[in-house]
Design goal:
Blueprint: H1 2-20, E1 22-25, H2 27-36, E2 40-46, E3 51-55, H3 57-61, E4 64-65, H4 77-84, E5 88-89, H5 91-102, H6 110-120, E6 121-124, E7 128-138, E8 143-153, E9 156-166, H7 174-185
Parallel strand pairs: 1-3
Antiparallel strand pairs: 2-3, 2-9, 4-5, 6-7, 7-8, 8-9
Helix pairs in contact: 2-7
């Protein structure tokens, strides 16, 4: 009986947290994808406001297998499970995970978080830091390009995740270009 009570309490707490989050569909982001002629989603999470700015919410909720950086030869057993295993994540879940990572609310060492921060730093200006990692899922059925990371600006951090359908090797550069355009549209990078 006690375990049923605890499970009910946890479920109620989870629903309260979900109800507090706001989702805002941003038409300017949809226009970015349209200009590039691709289907995808972009999610920017503002943890301080518990708000997500989203393009294509249905796709943002869809789980896809994780990204691969293409270096399978060097992958150890754990990496192979991660790249080829049954795990999947949505763009919304990806931003939530990155928010916990940057806030040091995941069970990893400070040294590990700092290594991720160092390894993902793409750009640093006087106004912001941009962290990101790109990759793609390639299987016989479809190719999905990902670009995930966060922006640090004005003392706050904004995790983001983008995924889109890729149809050729020429599309491989699109996730970063589209992601940057989305971040600019949301005022997180300079226009």
């Amino acid at each position: 009986m006690r375990s049923l009570w605890v499970a009910s309490l946890l479920l109620l707490t989870a629903f309260q947290q979900l109800a507090a989050r706001t989702y805002h569909e941003v038409t300017e982001l949809d226009a970015v994808f349209d200009r590039h002629g691709v289907t995808g989603t972009f999610v920017l999470f503002d943890p301080a406001r518990d708000r997500m700015e989203i393009s294509n919410r249905l796709r943002a909720q869809q789980r896809f297998p994780k990204l691969s950086d293409g270096n399978r030869a060097a992958a150890d057993v754990l990496d192979r499970f991660w790249l080829d295993g049954p795990l999947a994540i949505s763009a919304i879940e990806q931003t939530e995970f990155l928010a916990r990572l940057v806030a040091r609310k995941v069970p990893v060492t400070e040294a590990a978080v700092r290594a991720v921060e160092t390894g993902t730093l793409v750009e640093k200006t006087s106004r912001y830091e941009l962290h990101g990692r790109a990759g793609r899922l390639v299987n016989p059925k479809r190719q999905i390009g990902w670009w995930v990371g966060w922006v640090v600006r004005d003392g706050k951090y904004y995790p983001f995740a983008l995924n889109l359908d890729l149809f050729s090797d020429a599309d491989a550069a699109k996730p970063i270009a589209i992601g940057r355009a989305c971040l600019k549209a949301l005022g997180k990078l300079e226009r």
